[in-house]
Amino acid sequence: MVEEMERADEKDWHELEPNYPVKIFLTIFYSLILVTGILGNSITIRVTQVLQRNGYLQKNVTDHMVSLACSDLLVLLIGMPVELYSAIWFPFTTEQGNAFCKIYNFLFEACSYATILNVATLSFERYVAICHPFRYKALGGKRTSALITFAWLVAVLVALPLLIATGTEGHIPVLAETPVQNLTFCTNLREHWVMYRVSIFVAFIVYMIVLVCVAVMCQAMVLVLRKPLGCADGGVNGAQGSAKHEDSKAKTARKQTIIFLESSSLTFTEKV
């Protein structure tokens, strides 16, 4: 064990870092992703607000889209610069300190969870509006604010254990108890390894539950929107009559909504 510690102490860890051409390439690549993400989400926020102001989009949908775009922006602004600095340019030293490491892991995971849950709450509200319109009207105007608050609150609660389970830790060789040299990493702490694993497992369960629920709701909405208006009330004759009176704008809106739901379900699946 002593020989192993001596070898680890003498090892030049900088040899494992990417060379400068790779660092420069990854810096440019990360910067492009960051700029694209900031522009895309900023445009989303602006466009949804303009559409709502002109009457083309409901306020509850706008609120959900703004919340989703904000969580995406926070993921990019928090994750990209820190990842570029700590994982690519200086992977074997964490000079910001233990508190910064904990806060970074907590905020990044909380915003990531919020992105997924915002998709879920938006899907749930659209599901109720399309499949259960009378129940949707009975829920009242504070429904959207409650759903968005619920999404962010659950995201914070799920990420909260990372404030304890992560931090800065030096390099510890196998069978050793203390670091052998001044190498610090922002990682999960050895003494809280069980809590860290439980946190990751709970997050995975949340992701899977949300994934299944969104897929089921999107499928139900697509099935309802593909039916002609009034088919549930008037049978075959009612369906034929309603189909004749359904104008081209309504049909176009239905098709666009169906495409949006199917693409949203696919995008959410890929993100999870």
> CATH homologous superfamily - what is it?
Rhodopsin 7-helix transmembrane proteins
Low-confidence stretches: 231-246
Order of helices and strands: HHHHHHHEEHHH
Please give the alpha-carbon distance between the first and last residues.
Answer: 42 Å
Q: Helicity range of the residues? A: over 70%
Q: What is the top-level CATH class?
A: Mainly Alpha
Backbone structural class: mainly alpha
Work out the radius of gyration: 25 Å
Strand content bin? under 5%
Strand order of the largest sheet: 1-2
Total number of distinct structural domains: 1
Our count of helices gives: 10
Report mean pLDDT, rounded to a whole number: 75
Main β-sheet, in a few words? 2 strands, antiparallel
Number of strands: 2
CATH 2nd-level architecture = Up-down Bundle
CATH topology: Rhopdopsin 7-helix transmembrane proteins
Give the overall form: globular
GO molecular function: G protein-coupled receptor activity
Keywords: G-protein coupled receptor, Membrane, Receptor, Transducer, Transmembrane, Transmembrane helix
GO cellular component, one term: membrane
Pfam family, one: 7tm_1
Description:
This protein is mainly alpha-helical. It has a single domain, classed as Rhopdopsin 7-helix transmembrane proteins. Helix content is 76%, strand content 4%. The chain contains ten helices and two strands; from the N terminus they run H-H-H-H-H-H-H-E-E-H-H-H. It has helices spanning 2-10, 20-53, 59-89, 98-131, 133-138, 143-159, 162-165, 193-226, 231-245, 248-271, and strands spanning 166-170, 184-188. It has a two-stranded antiparallel sheet with strand order 1-2. Helix 4 (98-131) runs parallel beside helix 8. The model is unreliable at 231-246 (pLDDT under 50). Pfam families: 7tm_1. Its main location: membrane. This is G protein-coupled receptor 39. Keywords: G-protein coupled receptor, Membrane, Receptor, Transducer, Transmembrane, Transmembrane helix. Belongs to the G-protein coupled receptor 1 family.
